[in-house]
Amino acid sequence: MNHVELDKKHCWHPFTRQDLWTDDAHEPLMIERGEGAWLYDSEGNGYIDGNASIWTNIHGHQHPHITGAIKAQLDTIAHSSYLGFGHGLASELAGKLVSFFPETDLQRVFYSDDGSTAVECAMKMALQYRLQNGEPDRVEFVAFADGYHGDTLGAASLGGVEAFFSRFRKFGITVHFVRNLAELADLAHPERIAGVIIEPLVQGVNQIHVWPSGMLAELRAWTTEQGIHLILDEVMTGFGRTGTMFACQQEEVVPDFLCLAKGLTGGYLPMAATLVTETIYNGFLGGAERAFYYGHSYTANPLGCAAALASLEVFESEQTLIGVQEKAAYLAYKLSHLANENQAVKVVRRCGLVAGVELKSDKSGLGAEVCLKARNYQLLTRPIHNTIVIIPPLSITRDEIDIMVTAIDQAICEVC
Ligand SMILES: *Cc1c(COP(=O)(O)O)cnc(C)c1O
Question: Are 193 and 312 members of one domain?
Fold first, then answer.
């Protein structure tokens, strides 16, 4: 059997209708290699990685500094347990991560494996903290409608995308969904809320929904006033995508929990971190029954730590954040032209190098057709409903932005 046959016979893809995937007529693209912002399929065709390999890649594929750091680490050790032992790279990485929040209480780092576990662990910490620190009735959460926080059962219970999560509600935790800050005032019992979770500045899975400016700072003020923890899910927005290292820095907000994953290793290896305040951390001290019994076998994986440290070094050596500001302005300019000139485009939403192009038509499957067509113009990305998502590696060049926007324009013209 060749690779496609083996795939169709034995593999099960995420978020995928397998009946369509395994259809004889479906020819799945097999990705073979990547370089910079480009991906190459098994036939040698090149495409711009328009969604940064599902929002993970930061500095491009095969970046010599990150690849080199992983290879060097392999020559010492690939993995050792973080349960019962420490290692230097994890210590260094923790120091680097909290250094983005100097002179604040956000100084403790708990490692896990992906965005879902970063959120899962924030939830369990938030609950256990209340249970053992005199507030056993504060065990409910508030989340925002249409938000996405991952797929493990806890993280999924915070998810507001009804199509994915509604069937699991009855197994989950009590979560109140609100659409905006005004609705927080309608909560009957704010004194029962342990934490509020939000994707700051922009909700990714909600078709790139950009929050009003100032909203995050207002939410921080409200949660502080109510004694509610603020959990920021920066799994997508973290590591420069919105123009600053973390989105919350744009409104000078420091959360109680900060969930990081996707871009943490530059998009090279699965790894996550939940940053938490010393105040919360201190609530777990003082006895065996107060400790946080949680962890995964690959916690603080040394290869992941090496990649993450290397990625942060590239942010400095390549002045990545300055580049993002310039590229975001250029992308905004290109997309405003697209919105003005392409009659099939309803609206463009954007925050830094995160953008969505929404089509006027709400015909089902149109966004997917546009993305399929865009492959002919050297662009790979995915739609969310009829919004074409643009989340490229931050290393993308102006010329590559041109190719990407032209591809979307052409594909929309052909399909609509
Ligand atoms: C992708 C994502 C997650 C889940 O991360 P995984 O690594 O896929 O588990 C959580 N929150 C947000 C905002 C995301 O974009």
Answer: yes
